[in-house]
Amino acid sequence: MEGWWAYVFIAVGGWLATDIWRWLGVIAGNRLREDSEALNWVRAVATALVAAVIAKLILYPTGVLAQSPLWLRMAAVILGAFGFFLGRQKPAAGIATAIAVLAAGLWWLGF
Fold first, then answer.
1. Residue 24: its H or E element
2. Radius of gyration over alpha carbons of the chain, in Å?
3. Model pLDDT for residues 39-65, shown as the tens digit of each residue
């Protein structure tokens, strides 16, 4: 029980470092109009970050995905986008379609 202060310090420090910003975001977000320029900027940055992560996964994958061919990863993304739009723009439909295409392609290639 002697070294438990370090764990308390890490937990409290981690909580303070992240939770304060979350609460400030909630307070500031309540005062923004949905059509404000600030909120449009936040949406644009969030969309750009998601696009960058997806591009990184396609172009510079790791693990088993790195052994898969680029055409399979691109096909999974394109068909996942079709699944998203055909599924009434539900993210789960697009994600499930992309995973199914990728899994079927990896199985077909013998992974």
1. helix 4-30
2. 21
3. 889 889 999 999 999 999 999 999 888
Give yes or no for a contact between 99 and 79, defined as CB atoms under 8 angstroms apart. no
- pTM, two decimals, is 0.64
What pLDDT does 5 receive? 81
d(CA 108, CA 111): 8
- pLDDT < 50 positions in the chain: none
Contact between residue 76 and residue 102 where contact means Cβ atoms under 8 Å apart:
yes
In this structure, how many other beta carbons lie within 10 angstroms of the beta carbon of residue 87? 15
| Rounded-to-integer distance, Cα 47 and Cα 25, Å | 18
Q: Which region holds residue 62: left if phi is over 0, alpha if psi is between -120 and 50, else beta?
A: beta
- For residues 75 and 67, the answer to whether their CB atoms sit within 8 Å is no
Q: What is the pLDDT of residue 1?
A: 58
Task: Report which DSSP code applies to 32.
Answer: S
**Residue 55 near residue 39 (C-beta atoms within 8 A):** no
